[in-house]
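Follow-up to my post from last week.
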Amino acid sequence: MSTITQSPLYKIACPESIAFFGASNNFSAMGSSILNAILGDGYEGRIFPVHPEEKRVMDIEAYPRVGDLPRVPDMAYIVLPTRIVAETLRACGQKGIRRAVIVTAGFSEVGTEGMARQEEIKAIARKYHIRFTGPNCIGVVNAHMKLNATFIPSTCRPGFIGMASQSGSFITQMFDYLGTRFGRGFSTGFSLGNEADIDMVDCIRYLGACPNTRAIALYIESIRRGRAFIEAAREVSRTKPIVAFYVGGSENGKKACLSHTGSLAGPDRLYDGVFKQSGIIRARSVEEMFDFCYALGACPVPKGNRAVIQTHSGGPGAAAADACDRSGIELPALSTVTLEKLGPYVPHTGSVNNPVDLTYTKNPLDFFQAIPRILLEEEGADSMLVYFLASAAMIRRALAGLSVPEEEIDDQVLKIVDEQCASMAALMTSHDKPVLGFSFLTRENQFISGLQDKGVPVLPSPERAARALGALVEYRRLREKLFRSKRNDFVS
Amino acid sequence: MSTITQSPLYKIACPESIAFFGASNNFSAMGSSILNAILGDGYEGRIFPVHPEEKRVMDIEAYPRVGDLPRVPDMAYIVLPTRIVAETLRACGQKGIRRAVIVTAGFSEVGTEGMARQEEIKAIARKYHIRFTGPNCIGVVNAHMKLNATFIPSTCRPGFIGMASQSGSFITQMFDYLGTRFGRGFSTGFSLGNEADIDMVDCIRYLGACPNTRAIALYIESIRRGRAFIEAAREVSRTKPIVAFYVGGSENGKKACLSHTGSLAGPDRLYDGVFKQSGIIRARSVEEMFDFCYALGACPVPKGNRAVIQTHSGGPGAAAADACDRSGIELPALSTVTLEKLGPYVPHTGSVNNPVDLTYTKNPLDFFQAIPRILLEEEGADSMLVYFLASAAMIRRALAGLSVPEEEIDDQVLKIVDEQCASMAALMTSHDKPVLGFSFLTRENQFISGLQDKGVPVLPSPERAARALGALVEYRRLREKLFRSKRNDFVS
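User reply:
Got it. Predicted complex:
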């Protein structure tokens, strides 16, 4: 695929107009919920509700049949009862619509009869050259177009994580998760459902070409086209990291996948091999999948596996050090040059081993400026982990201590927090090394939201930060391997 | 130890009066921060600040020397410069004070000279029969006495997790963590620092006897009295679960621990063996330590390792199933009796395999009442995992659809949410089986805070819930083993 517009997913992810089937003025219907979410998030394209009786649906002009539409929309969104999906798809084809999302369930995931129904819609799609996602999916979200075509009414922030998921929940139910934890959102998310037509492979290619996507998350219950999957992933991984979470490998997982999307999962070790060959980083949980994507999208690729840890609390530092060990991260001793430069900033209770445990800093601002600059200049380290505990309240007290007038304090606190966070983010860019923060605090703390919003990823525990750094290192390794094998392709 | 009052920690955790050294009217000093935290949290005991010059400290009458105090306080809290700690401790001994917390750092953790200083204070303590925690610790918190003697000003909610930690951060920096994630707090937390006198073993015995503590968390960098540790833990584990997080086992972890508290960590496998012998559940991260304690303190002990999963989202259900496999949890097929009872509640898109994936429920309240009741009655299952997605907004829409007057909706929503959460909690109690929830939502969602506050633990991901259930099952196994070996003690 040379450009994104050639992807079968292009007009599904970026439609200028949508024919909508299944919304009515009965707000409790699933279709109404989805249309409600689309309207609520501010989609700016044109929507044509199709409804046999209602003249207007949610205050938009409705049409009794798809044939009556004044033009051919980019795609059809189908949230109808199972038994009328096939005839609707046929009518869409006759109208000239070439893309569809079929949300309706009751197909291959419910046994033999459902399988027959699925074959029927596939045949209709083939006849009319319709490419579609689903059935039994939740829809699509393209936050950069304000298109949230899922039933969860929630503003998904535009972000850099592109997602293809065999569970719709891991898209829609993650809007809030990514937003409240990291201040992040999706670039584009595809719920694939039964993958009767468009599948994971198409999504990998689309997201690989999508300019808003910096890291790709895959939730996998089974891969249907093994060879094509590996080829697509290898190609995309060279320039964009892919993280996969696969649950079908265990006995319990396999059974659950079968009931969920009718998919036949394979042994865990097989999938492990597929991911390795494909240059894909494997995550072991939903949390980890998003942690990895967050770090991979926010940080430069490290040159190696040597990190330095900056902390002012010993326990979190020790926990991070221990977790680094388990994630294949080395913590080298600091060079004499670095030790000399650090000297003036370290109180007598502190330690300049790695972790660098300051215990406290006389000037709290050193923690965001002078100290990380020195540590990033250390030639023996490729990346940095930083524990954050600072609070705006601390700055406030310090300002009060300096007799700053009460009415100026709020503004000054805001300005200081902002500058410190910006300094940290600028250091990551200027030194071209990953800086990964960790903290037990949430975005309610102004430093945490400030750092995250300026581009420094902050994860919620030392272990999760160390594992995410491990994923960055693994991505470098996988990418090098892919480029080596590419060169070999030319040689042989 | 027969009663809690005989513990050397009793008057440290439950002091009626405190002599405070190191607070002044300079608010940026560490000692002032601690006194500020104590006062802020509403401690109701008597405080005697000792300060050579100030007549009043933070508006409390101060005394120039400890000898001048009008009575002998229960303990001394020492946050002074390193060089005057020894003489202060001696003066306390002369006054008749028999308990102390020494927060000051600069002892065994900073090398030879510091070790000599530590020996000196140990000798003084022995001479005057003073028992103390520290030095180089952060203090003590007893939320049930509103005593937060740490430098983080934050109201720690009274909770059931008792903690002993070789890092103060894992106490103070967890007030916010436990509160915002789980709506929980500590019963009592001890920061141990260098453990020059009172150590982890004393804490285990104290927390074992503490009536407010239902689960014990230990953060360990090294165990100093191996044999006593095992004995104390074995005794306490019989009636109260203990969870330990040990970070000294890796090379990086070992080095970090040495700089942090001057402790000599041992090989990971050795500690693994110690924990097993002691009946202690091992956690692999800070998050996991608190997840486990939360679940262990909130749930009954399961009869075995068979669980049923209730969900209305396939992906989170499949992820939970897969994680159960990795945590040694079986998911048995449901009996025909259960299947018959479930029938009317499961729509045609749902699945009655285990996970029970409802996809949706016509009456959302069934999810909190009829369905979990049926699943808890299943004789083949010992516990239940439930995925929560419900939102108050959903109930609000449903009520609006039923034409409930606008002004009554808020009250009714609150009442309904409350009743559903209470129903779930009551089902756990009446069936005496653990019910563990999981959700990607936070306490901002009224159902999540409602469930947590009524006593149903809700963890933030399927994997973490499955691992916590694994910890419950492991506790049952460990406890049985301890009781068996107890019987053998009598036989041999």
